[in-house]
Amino acid sequence: MGDAGLSAKDTVEMLKAVxxxxxxxxxxxxxxxxxxxxxxxxxxxxxxxxxxxxxxDACGPxxxxxxxxxxxxxxxxxxxxxxxxxxxxxxxxxxxxxxxDRLDADGIRRFLAAAQEGVAKRGGVTEGQKTMLDALAxxxxxATDLNDLSTCLTAAARGAEAGVEATKSMIATTGKxxxxxxxxxxxxxxxxxxxxxxxxxxRDFVLVGxxxxxxxxx
Amino acid sequence: MGDAGLSAKDTVEMLKAVxxxxxxxxxxxxxxxxxxxxxxxxxxxxxxxxxxxxxxDACGPxxxxxxxxxxxxxxxxxxxxxxxxxxxxxxxxxxxxxxxDRLDADGIRRFLAAAQEGVAKRGGVTEGQKTMLDALAxxxxxATDLNDLSTCLTAAARGAEAGVEATKSMIATTGKxxxxxxxxxxxxxxxxxxxxxxxxxxRDFVLVGxxxxxxxxx
Amino acid sequence: xxxPVKKILNDPRQAVTQMIDGLVLASDGLTRRLSGLDAxxxxxxxDGKVALLIxxxxxxxxxxxxxxxxxLGDGAACGQFFAAPAPHIIYEAAKAVHRGNGVLFLYGNxxxxxxxxxxxxxxxQDEGIDIRTVRVTDDVAAAPPERTHDRxxxxxxxxxIKIAGAAATTLDSLDEVERVARKAVANVRSMGxxxxxxxxxxxxxxxxxxxxxxxxxxxxxxxxxxxxxxxLAPADTVADALLDRIxxxxxxxxxxxxxxxxxxxxxxxxxxxxxxxxxxRQVLQERGIIVHRxxxxxxxxxxxxxxxxxxxxxxxxxxxxxLDMPCQSVGFSRMxxx
Amino acid sequence: xxxPVKKILNDPRQAVTQMIDGLVLASDGLTRRLSGLDAxxxxxxxDGKVALLIxxxxxxxxxxxxxxxxxLGDGAACGQFFAAPAPHIIYEAAKAVHRGNGVLFLYGNxxxxxxxxxxxxxxxQDEGIDIRTVRVTDDVAAAPPERTHDRxxxxxxxxxIKIAGAAATTLDSLDEVERVARKAVANVRSMGxxxxxxxxxxxxxxxxxxxxxxxxxxxxxxxxxxxxxxxLAPADTVADALLDRIxxxxxxxxxxxxxxxxxxxxxxxxxxxxxxxxxxRQVLQERGIIVHRxxxxxxxxxxxxxxxxxxxxxxxxxxxxxLDMPCQSVGFSRMxxx
Lengths: 218, 218, 338, 338
Ligand SMILES: Nc1ncnc2c1ncn2[C@@H]1O[C@H](COP(=O)(O)OP(=O)(O)O)[C@@H](O)[C@H]1O
Ligand SMILES: Nc1ncnc2c1ncn2[C@@H]1O[C@H](COP(=O)(O)OP(=O)(O)O)[C@@H](O)[C@H]1O
Ligand SMILES: [Mg+2]
Ligand SMILES: [Mg+2]
Ligand SMILES: [Mg+2]
Ligand SMILES: [Mg+2]
What we know:
By secondary structure, chain A is mainly alpha-helical. Helix content of chain A is 67%, strand content 2%. The mean pLDDT of chain C is 96.
C-alpha cells in the first residue's frame, strides 16, 4: 500500500490507534507535566482521546471527517492548554484535508503544515518557546519531499522525537512552565511528547499495514 | 522545725518551689493530656505557675495571702479546666487558712479539705471520675492525724501518688477524656499528676528545711 | 504527622495575642480589643441592647472571636490554645458589652468553659448584672440522647451564634433572647469525621494519630475519641454514616425544614465538602426533609486538622427569621434574604 | 507528601461533576446547572443586564464557580482539575447568561484559559454577541512590571469578581463594566508563599515537593515556580518579603486607599493568616497606606496546599463603591457597608 495512501475507513482506524497510544502514555505525560507544569497533561489527554474513540465510531465519510471528529472531541473534552492546541491540530488538519478521498504523504504534510499554522495562531507561539509546536515543526521539516506514506510518517515520527529532544534545551516562555525560566532546561515539553506519541502511532499503523477491509497483511 | 510549721515568708518560698516543680514537668503533663485529653495541660499549668512566681513576689503578709496570690494567678493565666480547678484549690485553701500565722500540719489538712470541697463544687465531680479530685482526696486521707508538718506532707505526697495510680483504673466521666470511655483505662489523669507534683514539692521543701531567714539548714 | 508541622507564625507563645491583634485589624473598625486582655468587643453596641457574649479556646479560628460583629456576637472572651478563657477575661468582656439589659453567655459545652464562664457569671451576678447561659451541645457522638448535657458543642455554634445574634438585635428582653437560643440548641444536631490531625504550635505535636488509610467518625474538635475508627471510605458512605446518627437523634422527620451546615475542620478541600453535600441532599430528599438554608465553609477549625462535620437544625418560622437576617464579621458574613 | 493524600470523595474522575451538583444544591436556589454541562448560572439574571461570566479550572474551590450569585458572577464555566474549561462549556454558559447587553469574560491569565475562552468568544461574536475579555494578572512574582500580560491571575480574582459583579449590576453598558474591570485589574497586585503541596485526586500526586523546613515565595497556584525557595521563616519576615515585592510594583504610596486580601491556599490556619495580617498592617501604617477593606479567608485554593497570598488593590471612589456593595454566593458573601 503506502503510495496509494489510506482509505477514509483506514484513516479512522489509524486515528483510533493514535488515541489508544496516547491513552497508554497517561502516566508518562503526567509525570513530564509534574516536572515543569501542573501535572495534569496525561489525564487531560486521556480524557480527550477517550472521547475521540467514541466520536470516531460515529463520524461521517471522507478523510477530513475523521480528523474533524478527532479535533472536536479533543477540544470538547480535554480542557486546559492541551485541549485548545491539540483540538486545533486536528480541526485545522481536517480543513486542509477537505475533499481528499485517500490519506497519502502529501495529505500528511498538509495536515502538519495546517496544524502548525493553527497552533501558532491560537497559542500565539513560534518555534523555540518549548511547546508542542516545536515537535510539529520538526516533524513537518523531516517529512519534506517524501512521497511514500510510510517513509513520510517514519521521518515525521523521527522528526517529532527530535523536536522533543530540542525542547529539552529550550527555556519555556509560555504556558505553566514559563515561570520556571532557566529551571525548565533539561526537561522535555509534555505537549511535544504527545505530538511524538501521535506521529509514532500513525507510523506504526501504516508500517504494520492494513487493507481497506481492515485485515492485517504481512 | 516541722511542728512549729512554716512562717508566711517560708510559705511563699514553698509555693515558689511548687511552681518551679510544676513548670519543670510541662512535657510530662502535656504528654499525659495528649493520651486522653487535648494535649495542653502541661503548657496551661506552665502559663499559670509562671504567673504564680511573679505574683508571689508581690503578695502581702499572712499565710493565706500566699495561697490566695497563687490561686488568683493560676485562675487568671491558666485557662481551661485546670485553670478553674487549680485556681480553686489555692483560693479555697486561702480561705481555710485565713488568720493562720504559721503553716502547720493542721493547716495542710484544712487546705486539702477546702480544696476538695471547692473543686467538687466547681467541677461538679465526686471521687472516682478520674480527675485531680481523686489525687486530692487520697492525699487528704493519707494526711489524717499526722501532726508533724514534714510527716504530714510526706504522707500527703504519697497519698497523691496513690491517687494518680488509682485514676489509671478509672473510666473518665467528665472533662475531655470522658468520650474515651473504656479507652481511658490504664492512663493516669493529667490533673491528678499535677496534684502529686504539687504535694511532692511541698514535702521536699519542708524536708530540706529552711529557717525563717530563708537559710538552708542541714 | 510525626515532625512538627510547618506554620507561618512568630513566637508560638505569642500566637494567640498576635492573632487577636490581626483579627481586630481585619474587622475594619467593627471591633476593638480590650486593652491588655484577650477579649474582642464590637465598637458600637447600642444602649439597651441585650448583649451576646461568646468565647472559648483559641486555635479554632475563625470561631469564636471571628464571629463578633453585626447581628452576631457583641463580644468574645478568647482563651489560649484549646483552653477556655480565664474568668477575668470573660468578666471584663461581659462588662464591656453590657448595656443595662443583661448578657447572654453562649459557648460550647466543655468542662473548662463551663467552669470559667460560671465563675465569671457569679462575679457579675454579685454586681447585679443579669447573666444567662446557653451551652451548645450539638455533638451526637459525645453522649446518648438522654444525656445531651454531656454533649460537646461543635459546628452547631455557627447556627447558634447566627440566630442568637440576630435575636439579640431584634428582641428587647434577655428572657426572650434566652428563649430563642434554648429553642435553637434543642433543635440542633451535629457529628464530625476526622481524616488527619491538627497540632498545637507551642508543642508542635498532633493532637491524635490516625493511620494513612483511617478516619474516625464522631471525633471531637480537640481529638476527643469518636464512635468508630474505620478505613477511609467513599464520600457517600461517610455522609450516610453521619446522617444515620444525626437524623434519628432529634429525630428529623418528613416535612421538617432544616438548616444544613458542612463545617471544614481545616485542611479538607471545599470540593470534598460539596461532594458530601450532594449525597446529604439526596438522602434528605428521600426522607422528605426540606433544606431552608445551606452553609458550607470553614468556621470551627482545629488548626490544620482534616475532616468535617455535618450539622442539621430543625427550624420554625421564628428561627428562620433570625437565620435569614444579614450579618457581618471577619469569620461569617451574609447578605441576608432579599 | 509521598503517599496519596486521604480525601473524602467517591470516584475521583467523577469529583468535578459531583462537586458541581453539590455546589448548586448549596446555593439554595440561587444557581442552577446547565444540564449535562460543567457550567453554573444564576437562576435569575435580569433582562438587559450586562452579564459577567467567570470560570477556570476546578480544584480551586470555592473559586471560581462558587462566586456565582448576587452582585457577583452571573455564570461560571468549570474546567476539570487545574484545566481550563472547554470552549463549548464557555459558549453555552455565555449564551445562558446573555440578556442582550453583552457579556464580560473575567478570568485568570493562563495559556489554557486564554485559548479556550478566546475560541468561545470567536464563536459567540460570529453570532453577533458582544463579548469583552478582562484577564486577571495580579501575580507580581510571575513576570516583571513591563510584562504584566505575562502575569498569572491569583487571589486578585476575589476583588475583581466582587467589583466587576457589582459594576455589572449597577452600570447598564458593557463598555462601562469593562472600563471598571480594566481599572481594577490595573490597580491590583498579589504574591503568594507556598508551605506544602496540594494533590490532584485523580493522580494522588502532590503538584510539587517542598522540604519539611522550606517554603517557596512567589509560587503560583498550580505549583508554578516562584522567585525564592528558602527556609521556613517567622510570619513577620514572610509578610515583609511579600510586601517588598508588592508595594514598589504598582507602586502603592502614602495616602493611597487600598483593599487588602489574605487568601488561604487551603490548609493554612486562620490563626497564621491573622498573625500575618497584624504585620502587614504595621508596615502599611508606617508607609501611610490606608486600608479601606480587609478580606481574610479561603477562596483561591489549590486543594490541600498550605500557604497563602497577599493582595493589595489601590482604590478610588468608584472602586470603593462597588467593593462595599453587598453580595451573596456559596463562596463569598458580604452584608455590605451599612
Ligand atoms: N501558548 C501555547 N501555545 C501552544 N502550546 C502550548 C501553549 N501553552 C501550553 N502549550 C502546550 O500545552 C502543554 C500543556 O498542556 P496541559 O498540561 O494539558 O495544559 P495546562 O498547561 O493548561 O495544564 C505544554 O506542554 C505545551 O506543549
Ligand atoms: N469537671 C471537672 N472537675 C474537676 N477537675 C476536672 C474537671 N474536668 C477536668 N478536670 C481536670 O482538668 C484536667 C485537664 O486540664 P487541662 O488539660 O489543662 O484542661 P482542658 O481539659 O480544658 O484542656 C483533667 O486531667 C482533670 O484532672
Ligand atoms: Mg498541565
Ligand atoms: Mg487539656
Ligand atoms: Mg484544653
Ligand atoms: Mg492544567
